[in-house]
Amino acid sequence: MIVIVVVSMVFSGTLTYLFFARSGSISNTRVIYSLDQRKNDQEIIQLIDSANEYVYFAVYYFTKKDIAEALIRAKKRGVAVEGITDREGSQKSPNDDVTKMLRSAGIPLATQKHLDGIMHIKVLVTEKAYASGSYNWTQAATDANDEVLEIGTDEGIRSQYLKIIKKVLSSNMSENEKGTGKIQKLEIGEAPQHIGEYAEVRGMIEKNFTAASGTVFLDFCRSTAKCPFAAVIFASDAKKFKDVSSYKGDVTISGVIRSYKGKAEIVLNSPDQIIVNK
User: Fold this and answer.
1) Do 138 and 235 have their domain in common?
2) What does DSSP assign to residue 50?
3) CA distance linking residue 141 with residue 60, whole number of Å
């Protein structure tokens, strides 16, 4: 006979269930109300960052770039990442920005094939846990809407979500949506044609300059004004980089390419976004 004891506790507005089975295993389930902490996005990011094998997701509306960046980080460290979002929603701004980011980073992103309804699931599954509820991955759902987010490790529930998400992905993912599975690699002259996309951009640093504000500029041309690409480290992140002066010569910069004053630019938030090529 298996004995299961359920204990419920409340911490800072979060309802937590601990399930104890006779085998001694513990599964933890938390139900979070969005407006208590306004940090549901960080909960999702934590799950993604802790994944070692795979991250599968389905979300109706997806505009949070910090979650998209977490998915790309997972992809870069070798985690299998695949997802699906609503067809119509993915084509609207700013959803289409995230769609562009993920696909350019080699992450397969499907949309539903059936046109008689919407893809309304909001679930994430890793090999360790799951997240589900009403929470769309948007700023409004994070800090303005009344939403609930359930996060759990119960294997029975997790495996059911995994089965459903894999079924939805396999029945809707087209060959075009699978993409190459690889992050695109560009030279600095190609970067302006890929604004809004994630890429690895290779070039030669000609000079770096630290402004009085503490912001660091990495220039890839002798003439800054005529250069098609640049990289910048804002002062708030500069302390993460041990020795900025060591960044010289042939390097590869990774991140989302944005447009700033008519120039393609990548903002570096972490040292792992720059590699000195040997």
Assistant:
1) no
2) T
3) 12
